[in-house]
């Protein structure tokens, strides 16, 4: 191909290299210079122009791009029409992209005139999505280059369509794992499956024990499941742990435990009766992309996932800045001189409607002569947490009146009807920027004391990866829960009437469990009967008498 500045009288039939706009002239890059166009250029005073002219054997950019695209497009990858030396390839089915990396590298090595770019191998793609593009850099490709490219022509890009449709989900249970967490996990999982055409055909909830899980696995396979997902109440710590042991007890085998993708490290891949089984890591309860997605989509497309496939995922496997291993810029500011840690706050959620106590405003209802919410707020104020943010919503004025005289900051949530997550977002948004951690208290938990709040906020240590602090008794997790700033963004992303329990499971390695005694961390008031029962115990404690005696005294007063 000839390229350079050409006198106007010699340019007919060549291609314009640059765009040019003048009165009466709209010359665009790539246009063929014909006689009428040359005449207009002459009238505009142009005497020469930069142009390109094909030589014998050269292949024009559109023809070259079309030829390359047609040759490298494999099954379910279709080429668009060429335009300005480019041809895009699109998926003809939803599935997983397969790329011959060595072939792509070899093609791009032949000539700088010919380029091929693709999405990453094994990327999940939708119907019609662009998966690759061929671009010819100059206006033509030399004939010898096209001959060399031709020797490599073979399908390099294809889409493996999703095949599996029936997915079984098994959740194992331990004390303290709330039904809301499982419900949220199922919703997230169904949303993950929806683009693939698969559905949750059936789900089981069984104790976190080998025999129970093995029975559920056998039942799922016998029932026609094409893929089984196991969400454990506890993370898989070893090949001898409950989930891998149950797979083997069901007659299956473990193919690989762990993966060099973060988040997603604690993934398990196995089989039972020829059916793939995935032991999901905790991060799979979150909708964010993680290593679980990488393996799940391959399996749904009917692709085998071997140990070698998983161990090869390390390069590019760090999917984001992991909160438990934050980048230096994300670590909270250094503590003030003489302080044990940076600023820590408390958020008291007091926006709920209390629908199970319809004849009274629950949070302002008296308990031993004091509004329910005031007791919860005083627990926060009695700790070192500052500021104490109180989130109001339903009957906000009554909550404010119940807290009159207390040193708190009010943050109103006008969207309180949207659920607990909206109040949590409101409270987090009201925190000072320098806040390193915050304890989240519920306004209907009057038996939480300041000592517990202090213990929780002091347990947070971002520098050592301790980002969540939870009270625990007999394997059951309670409230309040303290959170470090690196997790605030994930808390802000919650939606609906769901708390943050699934985030605790997703960041299991970042959780500090604080043993507690008594029921204070587990006792919330929902009904009038529960409030009256607590009132009885409060009276008994104050009078140092048995609760039953206090009940009799109350009955006598009523009579």
Q: Which geometry do the CA atoms define? A: elongated
What's the helix count? Answer: 17
Q: Structural class of the helices, strands and pairings? A: alpha+beta
Using the coordinates shown, work out and report the CATH topology of the largest domain.
Spore Coat Polysaccharide Biosynthesis Protein SpsA, Chain A
Q: Give the averaged pLDDT, no decimals.
A: 86
N-to-C terminal Cα separation, in Å? 109 Å
CATH architecture of the largest domain: Alpha-Beta Complex
Number of domains: 5
What is the name of the CATH superfamily of the largest domain? Spore Coat Polysaccharide Biosynthesis Protein SpsA, Chain A
In short:
By secondary structure, this protein is α+β, with helices and mostly antiparallel strands.
Main attributes?
about 550 residues; alpha+beta; Molybdopterin biosynthesis moea protein, domain 2; Aldehyde Oxidoreductase, domain 3; Molybdenum Cofactor Biosythetic Enzyme, Chain A; 5 domains; 8-stranded mixed β-sheet; 6-stranded mixed β-sheet; about 25% strand; elongated
Structure description:
With 559 residues, the protein is an alpha+beta fold. It has five domains: 2-53, Molybdopterin biosynthesis moea protein, domain 2 (Alpha-Beta Complex); 59-161, Aldehyde Oxidoreductase, domain 3 (Alpha-Beta Complex), CATH 3.90.1170; 166-311, 3-Layer(aba) Sandwich (Molybdenum Cofactor Biosythetic Enzyme, Chain A), CATH 3.40.980.10; 335-515, Spore Coat Polysaccharide Biosynthesis Protein SpsA, Chain A (Alpha-Beta Complex), CATH 3.90.550.10; 528-558. It contains 17 helices and 30 strands. Helix 6 packs across helix 7 (242-249), helix 10 packs across helix 13 and helix 16 (528-543) packs across helix 17 (547-558). Residues 326-340 and 544-551 have low confidence and may be disordered.
């Amino acid at each position: 191909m000839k390229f350079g500045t050409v006198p106007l009288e010699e340019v007919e039939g060549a291609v314009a290299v640059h765009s040019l706009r003048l009165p009466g002239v709209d010359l665009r890059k790539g246009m063929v210079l014909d006689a009428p166009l040359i005449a207009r250029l002459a009238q505009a005073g142009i005497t020469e122009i930069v142009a390109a002219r094909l030589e014998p054997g050269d292949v024009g950019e559109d023809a070259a791009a079309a030829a390359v695209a047609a040759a490298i497009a494999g099954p379910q990858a279709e080429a668009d029409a060429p335009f300005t030396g480019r041809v895009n390839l699109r998926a003809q089915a939803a599935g997983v992209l397969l790329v011959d990396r060595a072939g792509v590298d070899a093609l791009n090595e032949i000539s700088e005139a010919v380029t091929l770019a693709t999405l990453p191998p094994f990327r999940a793609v939708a119907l019609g999505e662009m998966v690759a593009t061929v671009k010819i850099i100059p206006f033509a490709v030399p004939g010898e280059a096209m001959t060399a490219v031709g020797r490599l022509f073979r399908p390099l890009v294809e889409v493996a369509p999703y095949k599996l449709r029936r997915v079984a989900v098994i959740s194992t249970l331990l004390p303290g794992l709330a039904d809301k967490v499982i419900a949220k996990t199922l919703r997230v999982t169904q949303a993950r499956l929806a683009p693939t055409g698969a559905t949750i055909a059936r789900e089981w909830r069984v104790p976190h024990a080998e025999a129970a899980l093995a029975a559920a696995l056998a039942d799922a396979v016998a029932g026609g499941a094409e893929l089984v997902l196991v969400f454990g109440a506890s993370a898989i710590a070893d090949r001898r742990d409950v989930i891998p042991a149950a797979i083997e007890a069901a007659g299956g085998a473990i193919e690989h435990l762990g993966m060099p993708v973060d988040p997603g490290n604690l993934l398990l891949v196995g089989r039972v009766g020829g059916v793939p089984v995935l032991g999901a890591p905790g991060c799979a309860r979150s909708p964010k992309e993680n290593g679980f997605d990488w393996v799940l989509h391959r399996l749904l497309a009917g692709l085998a996932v071997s140990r070698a496939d998983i161990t090869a995922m390390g390069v590019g496997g760090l999917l984001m800045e992991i909160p438990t291993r934050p980048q230096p810029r994300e670590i909270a500011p250094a503590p003030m001189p003489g302080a044990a840690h940076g600023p820590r706050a408390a958020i008291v959620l007091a926006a709920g409607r209390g629908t199970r106590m319809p004849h009274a405003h629950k949070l302002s209802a008296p308990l031993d002569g004091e509004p329910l919410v005031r007791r919860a707020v005083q627990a926060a104020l009695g700790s070192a947490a500052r500021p104490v943010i109180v989130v109001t919503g339903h009957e906000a004025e009554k909550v404010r009146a119940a807290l009159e005289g207390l040193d708190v900051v009010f943050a109103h949530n006008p969207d309180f009807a949207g659920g607990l997550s909206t109040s949590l977002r409101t409270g987090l948004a009201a925190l000072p920027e320098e806040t390193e951690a915050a304890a989240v208290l519920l306004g209907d938990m009057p038996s939480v004391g300041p000592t517990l709040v202090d213990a929780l906020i002091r347990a947070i240590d971002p520098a050592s990866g301790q980002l969540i602090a939870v009270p625990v008794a007999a394997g059951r997790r309670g409230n309040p829960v303290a959170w470090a700033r690196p997790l605030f963004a994930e808390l802000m992303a919650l939606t609906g009437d769901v708390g943050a329990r699934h985030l605790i499971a997703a960041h299991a390695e970042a959780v500090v469990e604080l043993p507690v005694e008594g029921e204070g961390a587990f006792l919330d008031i929902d009904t009038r009967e529960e409030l009256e029962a607590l009132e009885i115990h409060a009276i008994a404690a104050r009078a140092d008498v048995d609760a039953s005696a206090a009940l009799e005294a109350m009955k006598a007063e009523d009579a």
